[in-house]
Amino acid sequence: MLRSMYSGVSGMRGFQTKLDVIGNNIANVNTVGFKGGRVMFSDILSQTTSGVTASVDGEQGGVNAKQIGLGVTISSIDTIHTPGSAMTTNVPTDLRIDGDGFFAVSAGDGAPVYLTRAGNFTFDGNRQLVNGDGMFVLSADGEPIVLDEEVTSFSIGQDGSILAVTPDGTEAIAQLGIVKVINPSGLEKVGGNLYQVTANANPDGEFEYFTADDPELGTGAVIAGQLEMSNVDLTNEFTEMIVAQRGFQANSRIITTSDEILQEVVNLKR
User: Fold this and answer.
1) pTM of the full structure
2) Same domain, 164 and 69
3) Which of 97, 111, 168, 182 could in theory staple to 220 by disulfide, Cβ–Cβ 3.0 to 4.6 A?
4) For each of the chain's 270 residues, which pLDDT tens digit applies?
5) Do 75 and 90 have their domain in common?
6) Which residues contact 187 (CB under 8 A, 6 or more apart)?
């Protein structure tokens, strides 16, 4: 069989995956805290038909190797952790991290801790700060944040501190926990705008809770009343979609042409 046919198949598979990633990006263009992905390609190991001949000074010139490529493969599917645009909601529990860091949430004692950039939080019936799926938002101590019954109002500062107003005055009752990740692209998406820490994100998959707006730690400030929107750029996505579509068509033409050549070979017998 012709090598070009298998090269065309590998190209079609690669561009199909690229279209899948682009489709997911476009579908999440309005998802709070969503980070878009991209597909990177690399060539497959080439077949060497003739090796390299070294040159001999004054006697013989060098000859390059003759290699035939065998197609393309996907080298990586990256998650791009650039910041998304801010959307002002004026809801006091809507939070945005202006800089690096992630919010930490958990379903309860003993449950895994996940990270998120989606700050659409609310206080439930038990005055617990939770996300849209009812998971507890964790403080800098790694504990759920709960308002006391005597609290009449509250505000959240840029350092993540929750200032509660009671009949006795105003006091800081908790501080949001912010998690720094060395390699955000190494986080694993688990759905629901959540990420799981892996060994490639932080050493041994471990992490610590920090406070927000700390220049020494490099954590971003917490902005109340705003949400971080998706970082997907529709202009770029539609451009990449055109490139992927044309690439898919070109590779399908390679298969068609290879099939016609094989048909000519079969017809030699007639």
Assistant:
1) 0.87
2) no
3) 97
4) 578 888 999 999 999 999 999 999 999 999 999 999 999 999 988 888 888 888 888 778 888 888 888 899 999 999 999 999 999 999 999 999 999 999 999 998 888 999 999 999 999 999 999 999 999 999 999 999 999 888 888 999 999 999 988 888 888 888 999 999 999 999 999 999 999 999 999 998 899 999 999 888 889 999 999 999 999 999 999 999 999 999 999 999 999 998 888 888 888 876
5) no
6) 79, 115, 181, 195, 196, 197, 198, 201
* Statement to judge: residues 39 and 106 lie in one domain: no
- Tell me the DSSP string of 72-83: EEEEEEEE--PP
CB 95 within 8 A of CB 159: no
Residues 195, 198, 200, 202: what is their CA dihedral angle, to the nearest 10 degrees?
A: 90
Which CA distances in Å does 21 have to 16, 29, 76?
9, 12, 12
CB 30 within 8 A of CB 230: yes
Asked whether residue 149 falls in the same domain as residue 174, the answer is yes
66's tokens: 């003759």
Q: Is the same domain home to 95 and 153?
A: yes
Backbone phi and psi for residue 268, each to the nearest 5 degrees, phi listed first: -60, -25
- Collect all residues with Cβ–Cβ distance below 8 Å to 134 and sequence separation of at least 6: 107, 124
Query: Residue 195 sits in which domain range?
Result: 86-228
C-alpha closest to that of 121 among 145, 137, 139, 107:
137
